[in-house]
Amino acid sequence: MSQQLYHLLSGAWPLVAESRELRCVPPEEMDNLWAEGWRNFGPDFFRASLMSDGSCLKRQIPLRIKVDPFRQSRSQRRTFKKNADLKVSCGEASPGSAEQALFDLHKSRFVENVPNSLGDFLGAGPEAYPCECRQFSVYLEGQLIAVSFMALGRRSCSGIYAAFDPAFSSRRLGVYTMLAELEFAREHELEFYYIGYATIEPSCYDYKKQFSSLEYYDWEEQWLRGEDLSKVS
Q1: How far does Cα 2 stand from its chain's mean position?
Q2: Mean pLDDT in residue range 187-215
């Protein structure tokens, strides 16, 4: 990216673009990395303050939810109630052929940047993941229709990826698995639930901004209130 293009976007916006590989990370250090805006897929850690969205550059921000004060919105309560007939199991991450088949259905929704496999997000296998990784499996009458993966630190957790069968899109299963992960975080008295990145500008990640008790990272070592995002110029 040219310096001229960077200033066209926002001369005041911090420029951050880093990556590293970490094979084994203690829970406390995972907390620290997430708090500094890092995200990881398997042992590959990365953070960046800008992202490409089509032909545009947008200002990228890490997001997290404060678990204890979080309350579901009216829309989220409807989603939770609509899926009361589903069974959710949570255990050690162990994706196999069923999860990969579901992922293959899920990725048919995309036309750009289509991932190859769950390994793109989990690494070679859960045993190679740098910290504890949990799997949330969602069943309808015994059929696996959604799955999500979450990493655990000492006092926080981070959503990694969720996949669902597009035939059940009306159930908003991506949001539903996030709510299930939040319930897990509350039950285990975790302080923060990291939900990846969104952008200051409108994007397909705007649904993440709809959660209460939201905070965003300003790339200058501060986590600020999500409701103040609308004031960022």
Answers
A1: 29
A2: 96
